[in-house]
Amino acid sequence: MNHTIVSSQEMQSVLATLFTKYNFPQEQAKILARIHTESTIDGIYSHGINRIPVFIDYVKKGLINIDTTASKVTAMGSIERWDGNRASGVLNAIKCTDRAVDMAKTHGMGLVALRNTNHWMRGGTYAWQAAEKGCISILFTNTIPNMPAWGGKENRIGNNPLVIGIPRKNGHVVLDMALSQYSFGKMQSLALNDQDLPFDGGWDNDGNLSKDPKTIIDSGKALPVGYWKGSALSMILDMLATLLSAGNSTYKIGLEKDETALSQVFLCIDPSTFKDTEIQEKLLNEIIGFAHDSSPISKGDRTYYPGERTLKQRSKSIKEGMQVNTVIWKKVHELIV
């Protein structure tokens, strides 16, 4: 058996101890421990517990500044630019989401463009955060070049994750997707368990499409979701994040050895501005009900709205604990010693 059952309380305690060891202030260490644990609870191991060794490696290299967080550079009404000061991407994203929510509550809409930050781990974290405060969110980030632009051989675009969240009484709607068919974190999780991808996820070193995550990770060439459409969307999101933040593009990020100094956008909208929240809820439920009322292709299967399976997994993990890869859990403990 290559998994061990870990409770959320145990994971948070272990991670808080680890982050404190690497000189994060106690309150920040607790926040980082909570966010990584929550991602794991929700089944996003790739950007939760599995990401910890890489995160600590970045701290050791001095790529993550533990002495500060993001700060405002300039503001104009409901739009602001912030500098991440190369601090923790998680702490920066929480701060910028909160600021975008505050502006949305004041102006109906708020946008924070953030430059010079680090990996925000699971982007969906911040959509759930905004939804809990009653706000719609549209969030995106650029990345290191890790996909060929459609029709090209070399990596020239990022798998720039796009996140959209909509608050809802009976379960928030949250779309969290990388613009590669599978995120590299997801492929690493499958590789740890010697599992293939259900569909082609990238190219091998000979230019052939592959379902083998290890082969794709080795080549470093992920497949854009929707082929040429995903390629185009990746470019557009990179352009927007770069222009709005006056930060680094995927091209500039790729000039560095490690993935750092990213550009991100946090846009929040307060739907209560329209004063028809009951109608909004009814409309959402109509859309979800129509999707649910569909005959499944496979017996026993069903359709889901974005975020529905996350809620299901969250409930299961809280009740039964999380199945953590034993190799990863051992590495985490070794980092504390």
TrEMBL record:
Source species of the chain: Maribacter dokdonensis
Keyword Oxidoreductase: yes
InterPro entries found in the cross-reference section: Mal/L-sulf/L-lact_DH-like_ah (IPR043144), Mal/L-sulf/L-lact_DH-like_NADP (IPR043143), Mal/L-sulfo/L-lacto_DH-like_sf (IPR036111), Malate/L-lactate_DH-like (IPR003767)
Domain of life: Bacteria
Keyword Ubl conjugation carried by entry: no
UniProt name for this protein: 3-dehydro-L-gulonate 2-dehydrogenase
Keywords: Oxidoreductase
Pfam families for the chain: Ldh_2
